[in-house]
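Repro:
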Amino acid sequence: MSSTSLTLNLGEGSVSFSFSPQAARELKAAIDELMTSLKAVTAKPTPGGGKVTPQPPLEYRYTGEVFLEVFCNPNIWPTPFAAKVLLTVRNVNLRVTTEAELTRVIEDINQYLEQVG
């Protein structure tokens, strides 16, 4: 299975690592589900309609040349555009854990998928 580098742009810099197109498609599908959850949380309930049902968090894990974990709790963000994800990228010698804007991660994944076809 061939891998190309995925670059995720962060608030201060970026991180690049080997990532397969199949894994990118799986991450995109998981983020699409997260966006649905975020939209469900931000939808205003009808007056007297009761509480909004809590949505499950995104907990994506990928193991290849590096370990990638993406986590987001959709219940704490006011809109999908304000949402951030917690990213962890690690291998035996290095570990980077940081927050990244969800919209930026989506753009980076889409750009990667366009490059690899």
